[in-house]
Specification:
Oligomer: single chain
Structural class: mainly alpha
Number of helices: 9
Distance between the termini: 35 Å
Number of strands: 0
Radius of gyration: 19 Å
Order of helices and strands: HHHHHHHHH
Helix content: over 70%
Shape: globular
Strand content: under 5%
Length: 245
């Protein structure tokens, strides 16, 4: 498909080219933002058909879990693994680890990506101003607005940055399982917010999409820095700095 395009277009879409890398990665982040997130945003702000499904899903999940202590405990544990306090500790510890190894740019990447991600989440919550689900017998309470899910967004960004940072230190045979574990833990954390009745389905999906968009954009900036210093761009299967291995 690429061969059928004009040379100037191929050069801007080819990740191996200096400026092509910028266009490719930032275009991906833009697509994640503009297409699925915009659809969710329009549905939420205009009370579209998806919001009706949202309410039914929230109430259905609530009925299943509300009288099951084991499921409630599991949901609370998973929810904690996506909480700001947890990421203050894990991201802070990881950043300190890389800083002491001399990998200061990775440490900065971890801190900046996660802090800015939290700011983006807060700003969008305030602008959308969506109330949280109202259930007759709530399991727990959550503060702030509902869209997007901060836990879903934070886990997508937080565990994503940790995976990319530590991937070069993981042996090849464990890299695919580590990526699968990332997808699983992020999905479970988002599900726990639904189970606890503090978010709608579209909130969780919005958090995933917006978190992934910012993760891609921030990683793109890091990748551009590597490219402009004569190093290969960031490779998902090799991590941020393959030299760390």
């Amino acid at each position: 498909m690429m061969e059928a395009l004009p040379a100037w277009v191929r050069s801007r879409l080819d990740p191996g080219e200096r400026y092509g890398l910028r266009v490719t990665l930032f275009a991906l982040a833009t697509l994640l933002m503009v297409l699925p997130f915009s659809y969710l945003l329009v549905q939420v702000t205009s009370h579209g058909p998806l919001t009706n499904e949202d309410t039914e899903i929230a109430e259905s999940i609530h009925r299943v879990i509300v009288h099951n202590d084991a499921l409630i405990t599991l949901a609370k544990v998973l929810s904690f693994l996506g909480s700001p306090v947890w990421f203050y500790v894990t991201i802070g510890a990881a950043a300190l680890f890389f800083w002491r190894r001399g990998s200061r740019r990775i440490a900065i990447y971890l801190v900046v990506t996660n802090i800015v991600g939290g700011v983006i989440d807060t700003v969008v919550k305030i602008l959308v101003n969506r109330p949280r689900p109202e259930l007759e017998d709530p399991i727990t309470e959550a503060f702030g607005k509902s869209f997007p899910s901060g836990h879903s967004m934070a886990s997508t960004i937080g565990y994503g940055t940790l995976l990319l940072a530590f991937l070069p230190l993981i042996t090849r045979r464990w890299r695919i399982p580590a990526m699968c574990a990332y997808v699983a833990i992020v999905g479970l954390i988002g599900s726990s917010r639904l189970a606890l009745g503090v978010h709608f389905f579209s909130d969780v999906m919005g958090g995933f999409v917006l978190g992934l968009a910012w993760l891609v954009a921030s990683t793109a900036a890091f990748s551009i820095w590597r490219k402009e210093r004569g190093r290969p761009p960031v490779s998902v299967e090799k991590g941020l700095e393959p030299e760390e291995a």
